[in-house]
Specification:
By secondary structure, the protein is mostly beta strands. The chain is about 10% helix and about 35% strand.
């Protein structure tokens, strides 16, 4: 009897370990992500704070772009937020950018695009918008080169569907 109970406990532990999934969303590369260039009419202002990890290279000269939006197709796109002369994206730093774009509902996706060879390890991206709650996306990841990388938490809604970058 004791052996049977021990066996069942081990089986239950192994099964639960195999079935366990993280409930914390992880950023993903999205090669099919499309930037909507036609919507970037600046009628609302957004504040975007990006925290670079202390484990990131000391600085990056890479070109950095950002796109974010809501579940209804409203997208804000900034083709270049990097500026090596301003010392943006140094390790252990938080950089804040004012970005204009179309007014949105609640922000539910964000993607970063990096092009270059230095590398960049992002901790968090926080977006503050007009009439929306601030939202923080927890990257804690190196941004791969030449691919949009981030989160879509819009739950099945289309994040972007028009012209590509």
């Amino acid at each position: 009897m004791k052996a049977a109970v021990t066996f069942l406990l081990h089986f239950a532990f192994i099964f639960s370990t195999i079935q366990a999934r993280s409930i914390i969303p992880q950023p993903k590369a999205l090669r099919s992500f499309k930037v909507n260039n036609t919507q970037n009419v600046g009628s609302c202002s957004f504040s975007v704070s990006i925290t670079t990890s202390c484990s990131s290279p000391r600085y990056t000269r890479d070109q950095i772009s950002i796109a974010f939006g809501d579940a209804y197709g409203y997208q804000v796109y900034a083709p270049r937020i990097d500026n090596p002369r301003s010392r943006a994206f140094e390790s252990c730093s938080t950089d804040t950018f004012q970005i204009s774009g179309p007014c949105t509902y609640q922000i539910c996706y964000v993607y970063l695009y990096r092009s270059g060879y230095d590398g960049w390890l992002v901790d968090t991206v926080t977006i503050y918008g007009h009439n929306t709650k601030a939202v923080t996306f927890y990257y804690n990841a190196y941004i791969p080169s030449d691919v949009w990388f981030g989160f879509n938490l819009c739950h099945g809604a289309s994040a972007s569907s028009t012209s590509s970058m």
